[in-house]
Each structure stands twice: as C-alpha cells, then as structure tokens.
Specification:
This protein has 298 residues and is an alpha/beta fold. The chain folds into two domains: 3-69, Winged helix-like DNA-binding domain superfamily/Winged helix DNA-binding domain (Arc Repressor Mutant, subunit A), CATH 1.10.10; 88-298, D-Maltodextrin-Binding Protein, domain 2 (3-Layer(aba) Sandwich), CATH 3.40.190.290. Helices cover 43% and strands 22% of the residues. It has helices spanning 3-15, 18-24, 29-43, 59-86, 102-116, 129-137, 183-186, 199-207, 224-232, 245-249, 277-289, and strands at 48-50, 55-57, 91-97, 120-126, 143-148, 155-170, 193-194, 220-221, 238-241, 253-257, 263-271, 296-297. The strands form three sheets. Strands 3, 4, 5, 6, 9, 10, 11 and 12 form an eight-stranded mixed beta sheet that branches. The chain has a two-stranded antiparallel ribbon with strand order 1-2. Helix 1 crosses helix 4 and helix 2 (18-24) crosses helix 3. The relative contact order is 0.15. Mean pLDDT is 84; it is low at 211-216.
Length: 298
C-alpha cells in the first residue's frame, strides 16, 4: 500500500466515477482501476460497488476512505512542518485558477510571489470550477482562486476582491457608448457565452435574466479571448470581468461599465483540514498588495 493508492481511493470516493477520478489524479483510467483492485486484494475488502453507470463506496470502504483522508492530512501536516522550518511560503505549493481569471491575474501574481517568497515552488493548474474543487477534495491542490460563493462545507473560503463586469459590444453600434449600462437595459440581451461549466457563463445568464433558457444561439467558446474576437466581428455582445478590459482595448470593441455592484467576488478556497492555513493568508496578503487596476479589495 502506498500514499498514491490512498489518493486514488479518496479521489474515487469523491468523484464516484473512474474517469473523473483518474483525470483528477493525472493518471489513466486503467491505471487507477488496476491499483484500486490491487489494494482491494491486498486488504481483502471490497471498497467500491461497481455498476455500468455508477461507483459507490461500500460500508467497509467508507471506514477505509475515512482513514485514508486522515493519513493524507497527516502527510500534509508533516510537509507543513518541514516547510515552516524552512520559512514562510517555501517549498511546493499547488494553486488552481479558473480560466476566466488565469490569463489576467497570473502575469502579475507570479512575479509578485517570486519577489516576496523566492523559496516558493509554485505549481499552477488552470481548470473549471468543478474539477478544481474535486482536486482540492482529493488533496491534489493546496488552494484555488475562483469566484465565490463555493457551497461546500468541507472547504474554507477567503474573499480577496470584487471585480466589476463590463458590457462589450462591436464598435460603432451605439452613439452613447460611454454611458453606464443599467441592469434593466442589460436584461434580455443576447450575449455570446462561454461553454457550460464556466461560472462566468452562469453569472452572465443570471444577470441578464435568462437563466435556464436554451435559446442563446449556436456560438459557444472556451475562452474570453475567442468571444472578444467574435464581438469585434459584429457577431454579438458579451459581459467581461474588469481585468479583461486590456484585451478588449486591443480589438474593435466598445466597453460600457455596468451599474455599481454588478460583478463577481474572487477568493481563495482550500480544505478545512489543510495543515498550512497561515500559508493561505500569506498568499492572500500578496494578492491584496498587488491588485491590478479595476478591482476592489474586500
């Protein structure tokens, strides 16, 4: 039995699906399945009930999964002791970030962290909210930067800053393009949206009062950069977080601010059982000390 085996067990219990658990552990599905079977043979206990549609933890498996989580938390604690002796925010630290934030926050965050904590070995993972939360739960990430709130009682959150939304449309579409856009004017707008799974998509739908509808056009994009290119060609309009405005300025796109308070709150998320909470707060302080233009610390 190895620590990696325990990580596989916890991941499969978290996801209830071999494919998603394997992806969270960065291994093939066959590798994870084989290691789980080998562990069951070694322990002489069936940990998971498998059907063609689902995977569930057995009664015996639940107890073992609980112990596996405790072992992994103790390993984190041992690593934490070593890194505390070495100095604050030193050694390895894995940070997740959502795709609508990564391209705009990392270029200034990474240099700031290198300057403040030169012994830090930062590993970055950009992904959608759900996969990042799964990685946090299976001890594959130390923390993640994402939009709040995060409804999971196993996780701690620390709000960092509020980021207003802007309305982006093709240049020349409106004569009074510099005026502030009200929520009433925004509701019902046809927007170019990100694909399902992006929290920014859900926020845009909710703000425009069209949550739950399916008639949003045939265009879907996986990045804000692609959406901006389509806005510039006249295909439609979109909502942008404030940090993406510099990207919009480089294209034929007009931006209008929304009413005050329309935007998203960004924060750090980590496991309640995480053994280095002080490191999270040091990271948060660096973030707050180097906030870019257009966002507001909370």
């Amino acid at each position: 039995m190895t620590l990696q085996d325990l990580r596989y067990v916890v991941a499969l219990a978290e996801h209830g699906h071999f494919g998603r658990a394997a992806a969270a552990c960065d291994v093939s599905q066959s590798t994870l399945s084989t290691q789980i079977k080998n562990l069951e043979l070694e322990l002489g206990v069936k940990l998971f009930e498998r059907t063609t549609k689902s995977v569930s933890v057995t009664a015996s498996g639940r107890e073992i999964v609980g112990h596996a989580r405790q072992v992994l938390e103790q390993v984190d604690a041992i690593v934490s002791v070593g890194q505390t002796i070495s100095g604050p925010l030193s050694g390895s630290f894995s940070l997740g970030v959502i795709p609508t934030l990564g391209p705009y926050i990392l270029p200034w965050l990474v240099p700031a962290l290198k300057q403040d904590y030169p012994e830090l070995r930062l590993t970055l993972r950009e992904d959608l909210t759900a996969p990042l939360l799964e990685r946090l739960g299976s001890h594959r990430l130390d923390a993640a930067l994402m939009a709040l709130p995060v409804p999971d009682g196993r996780l701690e959150t620390l709000p960092l800053f509020d980021e207003p939304f802007w309305f982006a449309e093709p240049k020349g579409r409106r004569a009074a393009a510099a005026t502030r856009m009200t929520e009433d004017e925004l509701r019902g707008q046809h927007l170019l949206l990100l694909t399902e799974g992006h929290c920014l998509r859900d926020q845009a739908l909710a703000i425009c009062g069209i949550a739950g509808t399916e008639d949003e056009g045939d265009f879907r994009a996986t990045s804000l950069e692609t959406i901006l290119q389509m806005v510039a060609t006249g295909l439609g309009s979109t909502l942008l977080p404030a940090m993406a405005r510099s990207e919009a300025r480089a294209r034929s796109v007009t931006m209008r601010p929304l009413e005050a308070g329309v935007g998203r709150r960004i924060g750090l998320v980590w496991r309640r059982s995480y053994s280095r909470p002080r490191e999270i707060h040091l990271l948060a302080q660096t973030l707050r000390d180097h906030l870019p233009e257009g966002v507001h610390s909370v």
